[in-house]
Amino acid sequence: MIAKTSSCSINGIDAFVVDVEADISMGLPVFQIVGLAEASVRESKERVRAAVNNSGYRFPMDRVIVNLAPADVQKTGSGMDLPVAMAILGASGLVLPDAMAPYLLSGELSLDGRVKPVRGILPVALTAREQGFKGMLVPADNAEEAAMVDGLDILPVSRLSQVVEYFSGHGHIPPFVRNVVHDSRTVPSNAAGDLSDVQGQAHAKRALEIAAAGAHHLLMTGPPGSGKSMLAKRLTTILPAVTFEEILEVARIYSVVGGLEIWKKESGQRPFRSPHHTISDAGMVGGGSRPMPGEISLAHHGVLFMDELPEFKKNVLEVLRQPLEDGRVTIARAGIKAAFPCQFMLVAAMNPCPCGYLSEPGSTCTCSFSRIQAYRSRISGPLMDRMDIQVAVPRVSFASLVSREKSEDSASVRKRVMPARQIQLKRFDSTPVFCNARMGTRDIRRHCRLDRDGQRLLANASDTLMLSARAVHSILKVARTIADLDSSADIQVGHVAEAVQYRGFDRETGSTGNG
Question: What is the pTM of this model?
Fold first, then answer.
């Protein structure tokens, strides 16, 4: 007899439906799984056999063949255990195969028949909805995650016997009722601190506000202890509220890597990732024999903070260039190709020199000119070009540190950022662009027109600083954002002048490179 259930396998952050077919025929006792299954799926044979027997049922002592279709695509993950077991029990006549048809099953089985949680249940739920399934049977610990997807009956199960009783008509599984607490995630929390914690640094805070308003990449340079890391960690507190659609996109990525609960607990607003400078290029952009998301994808719709930027490996820095432009990275392996979204804000911090005290009043720099040049050359011109805002963060004076004057808090800054973002959303309505930093050449020509004085100022800056075309476009994007913060339909010469001031490295070197 043949029975069939439906499940899903993960490729990158996407899921595809897998038909699990079981056939039981007379012959020597054999249990075989075919259909290009990886090791974790092949090993399910022993888990399924033990779980069926220990749940009070009889595993067929005949020839059992399980086919995973489509047969030419590799199947991964331990979520195949439950559908394989139910297909076999359906083929043995214990449950009705037709009853299982409207549902998609996913779950790992323990030897005693318990259903354990699996990774990637959110992409599976999205695929189940797209393919028209009525509902899903998922591990109880995954029910809340699966219920983020509307339009599906999510049936949480904790034991194999519970599933058998449901599909044999002798039991009932109440659908999981989603608590609408997820909407509260659009409200920022103070988990990352507040901008008022940072004393002084008015110029850097202004740069942070502009970066948040237009989603621009930001580079901060300054001596050790000047507040660069504090400023970066508080950027998420002034960013626009994350929408439920963005929550789904981010949760989809964290679901695949098994870090969804950690993200939900630690992130009050948008993702904030701060990898160590020893990270590999695969850890940064993603990779592995079975491609998994990297740090840039885990920072999707959030912030990627790279402290001590020149200390990162050269190849790690260079692999960032294309994702910064495209907002997407594709990882190809033998027979596998996966694409991961990575629309993030890059915020980097570095010292002005190896010792950190170059041009710092009251401090003596011990670095030679050649050493300083070698230190800065670790960051290529093309990567530096992509840093829209480059701002100096000098040492905070003692008077500012002990001042009782209250600094502006994150909520006040965010009240200015939100209207600017709303202007951009309206401007780019019905287009893939959602912020000024993502404008292409055509968008820049259309929305960043300058008057005669603005053109003259930008031309002088371009000639004096030997700016590349990308750097000029960065200045125009930042000027557009500054104008949006001022609720100005046109870019004024003052907006251009302020944008030029945020090209700190260009002013120091006179060149950014043209790569």
Answer: 0.88
